[in-house]
Q: What sequence folds into this?
């Protein structure tokens, strides 16, 4: 998403991505999710995950998205 109005705010597992999307949706932010697949050989050799997700939000919603994620993080740490 080079040269777009969207900013990547998270890269990680499907489960965490779904939770973030849910929290963003609660505050009215429609995020864009881009799914990536690594080559299987590298992931298998190093014990990593083959799939990960990237979450993007519109530049105008970055501040609200950051707050929502910070609130989620605080909730999970409590």
A:
């Amino acid at each position: 998403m080079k040269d777009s109005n969207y900013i990547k705010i998270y890269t990680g597992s499907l489960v965490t991505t779904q939770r973030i999307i849910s929290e963003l949706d609660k505050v009215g932010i429609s995020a864009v999710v881009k799914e990536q697949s690594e080559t299987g050989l590298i992931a298998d050799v190093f014990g990593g995950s083959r799939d990960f997700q990237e979450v993007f939000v519109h530049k105008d919603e970055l501040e609200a998205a950051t707050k929502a994620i910070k609130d989620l993080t605080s909730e999970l740490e409590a």
The first helix runs from residue 14 to 26.
